[in-house]
Amino acid sequence: MSKTVRGYAATSERSRGWLRYLYRKATTPDNWDKDGEAHPHWDSYSREPTASWARMDLRESSHAVVLMADTTPAWREVYSTILDELVYRHTGYHAARDWLDQIGADPRRDSYPEGWHETLMPKHLRGQYDVPGWTANGIEPWGLQMDPIGADGNLFFKGWFLMMLGFHLYVSGDEKWNRPFDMVRDGENTFTWIHSGIAEYLANQWSKVAEGCQ
Fold this sequence. Notes:
Blueprint: H1 13-27, H2 54-71, H3 76-90, H4 97-101, H5 114-120, H6 155-172, E1 181-186, E2 189-193, H7 195-208
Antiparallel strand pairs: 1-2
Helix pairs in contact: 1-3, 2-3, 2-6, 3-6, 6-7
């Protein structure tokens, strides 16, 4: 059992238990490519329809890791390993599956649960409007764009991913993700990016029009 030394920053017993659990999750092998499957311990069920994707678990898990790394920097190697694993999973097909699979209008828009109608869309648009969370890749005027980073829209995906890349660099000091890496990895739908390239691309998207990304 670790001992807290008075006057020095420390993590709580509860947070250390969560850290052990997250490390186990992050280092348990799985495959987020199209022909693989995310391990069931990555939450892909909660908060449908807006946040029921396994990548949300990656992003939300990364927040506390940075705070803990500032508190106990001697454990930097552990924190860096976790963040690296989270980032790598975010490059896979299943991290962007909503953007890649939700093409055009939602075929379920006529049969959404009543609770979604009440809280997520105007009454006069029921049955005519996609629920928030449906990405609708391919709709006009933008057309089908399979690169989740290079697309005109999909801001939340690339913005959170950029944040996670920054977390990894901040904690580890390692420029690993500023060397070319592949996203999606699905045959012709394989897209190569680097950390700084994503930041520059996103900044350019925001600077072109006042509204920012699609």
